Every structure is written in structure tokens, then in C-alpha cells.
Amino acid sequence: MIKNFLENIYNKGFFHLLGSNFLVQFFGFGLVLFLGKILSAEEIGNIKIIQSYSLFFITFATFGVNVALLKTASEKRPKFEKKAILKKSIVIVLFFSIISIFLLFTLLKLGLLTKNEDIEYWLYRYSIVIPFAALGYLFLAYFQALKEIKNVAKFQVLIRLIFIVLIFIFTYLYGFSGLIYSTIISYILGTIIFFKHLDRNLFKFNIDNSKIKKFNSYAFFSFIGMIITVVGKNSDIYLLDYLEAVKDEIGYYSIAIIFFMAGNVINGTAQSIITPHFSENENNYTWLKNNLLKYQILMIPFSIVVSLCLYLLAYIVVNYYYGQEYSQVLDILIYLLVNYLIISTYTITGGALVGLGVIHSSIYIVLISTFSSLLIGYYLFFSWGVYGVAIGQIIGSIVNFILITLLFIYHIKKIKRNYI
């Protein structure tokens, strides 16, 4: 039974994508170790803040189209229709990329985004990545919708290798500015790599909007949900910047987040693979019930083992590489790993809801949990500092778990009634 189960997820490309994601994180981890010796803790904190703000505007540029594409292109339809959906998606993303850059520049000009002049200076330049990163998310969603998981894994490793090599060279030669400009170049090259593997006649395909009636609805409500999610996931960094926390502590917090993100590799991998399959079986009650339970249970022991390994790795790195002055990284990491374990308990459920097209209700859940984490993080910061912000994230994840689980139970019962 176990053998058949492992063969099943292997054929779906789980281990290929998981392996590539771990390899990507391994490269990224090596990069962080390297940057820790070249850049100061303050500079590491600055690049994290820049990346967090830019992620918001990249998400704005996608306008939820990547999720709408993943949903509609994973449905059973002719290949030419799927290509036409991609074409439509590209045009929308490019349009909103222009709006996103304009919005970023306006907020910076008015002084409404950040009080840090260095971050403001570099955000103007870093904004170049917005259209390229948005297209990258779009192309990933397209290949996932086609279930070409092995190609997704290959592209990710290739792009990350280019990214790592360029950053190593430019940061070593030019420091912080080299890191910024090499990142911009990497995004551009990554988009080119994806584009080369698309049909050259892509822009000749068209689709009647009546065949994808819910596309715009999926995109809009996904956009709202994703914006709120991005704010929620980065609210700790936004808060630390807004509250003008000690710059070195933001750097320590940013290093701890790298280990937290490495743990989330399993979560993201599982979600990206499971969503199209839930979409295909959205009316099959028995399949939905059995597979959700099976995959969600599998996530928990994986996550426990990963969190223990990550803390051990962080302990070794901090004590034998960075030095005692970075010991605060380990203290912060404990809070972040608790948050990671909570997130892993609803990862599959959240992906299943997207696959079922439950977008509207998910937005309210994300909004509630984000507001909770921001409010609590803000309040606790004045007593607990960066740890208070981390606790706010934990509370937000607990709220997410409760509400997402209740929402899925409601929809699975609804499907059961129709199924019977």
C-alpha cells in the first residue's frame, strides 16, 4: 500500500519538484551564508525589507491571473484553449505591471511606504523586476496546470543556478549594490528561459470568453486574497520597518526567516501539485475526502522532522560560522518554526480550497488572520520587540487553521449532498 502510494506521488512529479525546491533552498542557504560574511546584519535586513515591499507590487502586477490561469487551464479542455488562456493572461499581467510600478513610484514620492532613505533609494531601481517576476509566476502556474511538474523542477533549478552565480560574483565585487543589480538581471534571464519553452505561435491562439466565464472572477478575488496574504506573510517585516526596529535585529530576524522559508518548501510543493488534481475532481466527494485526509496527515510528520533539522542546522551555522553576535537568530527561529508547524496543518486544505474554486470565502479568512497578526504584533512589539512581532504571526496562523478547516468542512458537506 505504501509502495503504491509513493509510486503515485512520484509519477505526479512530487519528488522531482520537492527535490528541485530543496536544491533551490540549499543554493539560497549557501548564498545567505556568503552574504553574512560580505554584508552587515543591517544590509541583510535592508535587502529583506526591499524584497518584502517589492513582493507586494509583484503580486499586484499578477492581479491574481496566475491563480485564474492555474484553475482554468488545469480543467479538461483542448490544448489550444489553454494556450489562448495563457496569451490572455500575459497581456493582463503586462498591463497591471505598468500600473504597479506607477503605484510604487507614487507611494515612494509621497513618503508613504518607508521612512528609510536607503530602502527608498534602492526600491526605485529594484522596481525593474516587477514585470519579469510577475510573468515568472504566470509561467510557473501554466506549466503546473499542464501537470508538467518535472519541467517546473528543471526550470526552477536552472534559473536559481543563474541567480546564485550572478549574485555571488556581483556581491563579492560590488557589495550591496552588486546584490541588487545581479538580482534584477537574474529575473530578466529567468523570464527569457520560460518564454523560450512556450509555443512560438502562442499569440495566434484565441478563446471565446464564454468558455472561461469565471476567469475574471477567479483573478479578481484571487488578487484580493493574494494581496492580503502577501501583507500577512510579510507583515512582520513591514511592522519592523514601520516601527523602526533596531536595524541589526531586523537583520537577525531576516536570517531566521531564511530557515523558516526553507521549511515552507514542502508546503509550497505540496500545494502546487495538489491544486490541479482537486480542481479536476471538484465534484467527486469520495476522492476529495480520502485524498485530503491522506495528504494532510502526511504533511505533519514531514514538517516536524524538517523543523528539527532546520533548528539543528541553524545552531551549527550560528555557533560555528557566524559567531556568538548572531545568537539572537536562534531565539527568533524558535518562534518562526512554531509558526511553520501550525501552517503545515492546513497547507493541503488551503490548496484544496483553491482547487475547488473557493476563492471568495478564503479572502475573508486571510483578511481576518492578517488583521489579527498585525494588531497583536504591533501591540506586543513595544513589550517584546521582534519576538512580539513573531508571536503575532503565530496567532494569525492559528486563526487561519481554524477558519480554513471550518470552511473546507462546510464545502465538503455541500459536495456530499450533491454527490448523493
UniProtKB/TrEMBL annotation:
InterPro entries: Poly_Biosynth_Transport, Polysacc_synth. Pfam families: Polysacc_synt. Keywords: Cell membrane, Membrane, Transmembrane, Transmembrane helix. Signal peptide: none annotated. The chain crosses the membrane at residues 21-40, 52-70, 90-111, 123-143, 155-173, 179-195, 215-232, 252-274, 295-322, 334-356, 363-381, 387-410. GO terms for cellular component: plasma membrane. It is found in: Cell membrane. It is a multi-pass membrane protein. PANTHER family: O-ANTIGEN TRANSPORTER-RELATED (PTHR30250:SF11), PST FAMILY PREDICTED COLANIC ACID TRANSPORTER (PTHR30250). This is Putative flippase.
